[in-house]
Amino acid sequence: MTPLSIAVLSLSMSADAFAASIGRGASQRPTVAVALKGGLVFGVVEAITPLVGWALGLAAASYVAAVDHWIAFLLLGLVGGKMVWEGFQPEADDPERQARRASPWTLVATAVGTSIDAAAVGVSLAFLGSDIVTIALSIGFATFAMTTIGMLIGRAVGHRMGKIVEVLGGLALIALGTSILVEHLGLFA
Q1: Phi and psi dihedrals of 188, rounded to 5?
Q2: How confident is the model at residue 162 (pLDDT cuts 50, 70, 90)?
Q3: Which backbone phi and psi does 131 adopt, to 5 degrees?
Q4: Is 188 exposed, middle or buried (0-12, 13-18, 19+ CB in 10 A)?
Q5: Under 8 Å CB-to-CB from 134, ≥6 apart: which residues?
Q6: Whole-angstrom Cα distance, residue 74 to residue 187?
Q7: In 3D, which of 124, 171, 12, 123 has the Cα closest to residue 4?
Q8: What is the dihedral of CA 44, 32, 35, 10, to 10 degrees?
Q9: How far apart are CA 155 and CA 178, in angstroms?
Q10: How many C-beta atoms lie closer than 10 Å to residue 90's C-beta?
Q11: Which residue has the higher pLDDT, 157 or 52?
């Protein structure tokens, strides 16, 4: 993968965490220290999950080498499509739900939930033979930065912007999957 592809992938993977952090920031009004802690939790989890997916993908890579580009296309398309779909879903503003979102366990659960897509991407990266350590670190750093910034933005402007970023991140993943498929099929060679 090129540095630009890694950057796009990293920002796309951090988009759902960014959207979640804006909502968290809007509901909790965190300090900078709390936002940094939240960013660290999200970043570490988001860096680990593509490694797990990559390991699982390597175990299966020899069995699917002939269709790996289709698998990458489908996984990235599904994850991106899910992000776009969720970006258009309304947020519930119920006070009980907001109280649950404030707990540290909810922070960890949200970080894990938003990183599941990174595991699916890790599977795709195993099929492509990508440098997973560089990519995982890039995803983790981007998620740390985006989540920290998102919590601080949420504190200032609310959660509306998070939905837009989630849709854009999903569209970027769909474009990346399409690019991988086009490149492997040699459609524009």
Answers
A1: -120, 35
A2: low
A3: -75, 90
A4: exposed
A5: 6
A6: 17
A7: 12
A8: -60
A9: 36
A10: 6
A11: 52
The token duo for 167 is 């849709």
Residue 122's pLDDT is: 86
Which among 18, 45, 24 is positioned nearest to 122, based on CA atoms? 45
Residue 82 burial (CB count, 10 A) = 17
Q: Cα dist. 173→12, 72, 162 in Å?
A: 6, 10, 17
**pLDDT (tens digit per residue) in 96-119:** 555 555 567 777 777 776 677 787
Q: Where are the alpha helices (DSSP H) in 65-159?
A: 68-87, 95-101, 104-128, 132-157
Other CB atoms within a 10 A radius of the CB of residue 85 amount to 12
CA distances (Å), origin 47, targets 12, 50, 61, 135, 141? 13, 6, 21, 8, 8
Angle subtended by helix axes 132-157 and 32-64, to nearest 10: 140
For the record, the structure tokens of 32 come out as 């900078």
Separation between Cα atoms, residue 124 and residue 177, nearest integer Å:
9
Of 156 and 110, more confident: 156
Residue that the structure tokens 């796309």 belong to:
12
User: What is the number of residues in the chain?
Assistant: 189
pLDDT recorded at residue 100: 52
Q: Which residues of 97-133 are buried (b: 16+ CB within 10 A; e: fewer)?
A: eeeebeeeeebeebbbebbebbbbbbbbbbbbebebe
